[in-house]
């Protein structure tokens, strides 16, 4: 397994590469627009570590003891991003949640994110070409979601031996020492769901990221080193 500090460096590199790629699009999202900030955001335990450290530095760890982070009683198993893609690639129906929890994220304060520097990638990828407050539906450019989903898969792959769940459930589990009960095991990349017409847009993102160097090795080499 890759040492945790290097995993965090790789995650930061991925965030940078994605932000540069996403800057080529013109989105309607603005500060104070928080339609997508719900309890359905998912993440890995690697990202959870970053949030826990940030809350500790800010003397805010007690927030995780609040009612908003009480673990769900009837939690059911879910597909992670990589097991979802794997099911699709094998032509099997993936286990999808019956409904999403669209109540506001507990970190949303006065319509702004209170953990912005360490928000999960699942938050960073949300974007819409049109204001979505009225419709509640985000309009994404062709290929954008495919590229962002591939990076979700990279993060899960890098967190080999970690857990995946909604941010709220995973933090509840990490805070109470029950992370195995509130997160699914992370899985390696089984392949990608990128349509032929999306390759032209997505490949510069993936190839550019894989060529970046982190601690003396390319991102691609670290991905290979993270295979179980
Ligand atoms: S962590 Fe921040 S960006 Fe993500 S859903 Fe919560 S408030 Fe929104």
Structure description:
- It is a single chain.
- Helix 1 (4-22) packs antiparallel against helix 8 and helix 5 packs parallel to helix 8.
- The longest helix has 19 residues, at 4-22.
- The protein has helices at residues 4-22, 45-57, 81-89, 121-124, 144-158, 167-176, 179-182, 199-211, 219-225; strands spanning 42-44, 108-109, 112-113, 163-166, 184-185, 213-214, 217-218.
- The chain is globular.
- A hairpin with a 2-residue loop joins strand 2 and strand 3.
- It has one domain.
- It is mainly α.
- 31% of the residues are buried.
- Bound molecules: iron/sulfur cluster.
- Iron/sulfur cluster binds at residues 37, 41, 105, 107-108, 113, 115, 119, 123.
Layout of helices and strands, plus pairs?
Blueprint: H1 4-22, E1 42-44, H2 45-57, H3 81-89, E2 108-109, E3 112-113, H4 121-124, H5 144-158, E4 163-166, H6 167-176, H7 179-182, E5 184-185, H8 199-211, E6 213-214, E7 217-218, H9 219-225
Helix pairs in contact: 1-5, 1-8, 5-8
Iron/sulfur cluster binds at residues 37, 41, 105, 107-108, 113, 115, 119, 123.
């Amino acid at each position: 397994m890759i040492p945790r500090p290097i995993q965090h460096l790789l995650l930061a590199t991925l965030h940078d590469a994605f932000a540069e790629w996403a800057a080529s699009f013109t989105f309607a999202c603005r500060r104070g627009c928080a339609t997508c900030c719900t309890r359905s955001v998912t993440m890995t335990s690697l990202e959870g570590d970053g949030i826990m450290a940030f809350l500790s530095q800010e003397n805010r760890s007690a927030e995780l003891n609040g009612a908003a982070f009480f673990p769900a009683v009837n939690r059911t198993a879910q597909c992670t991003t990589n097991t979802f893609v794997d099911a699709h690639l094998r032509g099997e129906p993936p286990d999808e949640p019956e409904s999403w929890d669209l109540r506001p994220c507990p970190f949303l304060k006065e319509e702004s994110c209170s953990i912005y520097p360490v928000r999960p990638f699942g938050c960073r990828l949300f974007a819409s070409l049109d204001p979505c407050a009225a419709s509640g539906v985000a309009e994404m450019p062709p290929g954008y979601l495919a590229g962002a989903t591939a990076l979700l898969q990279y993060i899960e792959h890098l967190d080999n031996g970690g857990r995946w769940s909604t941010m709220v459930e995973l933090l509840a589990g990490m805070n109470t020492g029950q992370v195995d009960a509130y997160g699914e095991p992370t899985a390696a990349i089984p392949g990608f769901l990128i349509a032929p017409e999306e390759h032209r847009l997505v490949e510069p993102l993936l190839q550019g990221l894989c060529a970046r160097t982190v601690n003396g090795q390319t991102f691609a080499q670290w991905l290979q080193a993270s295979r179980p």
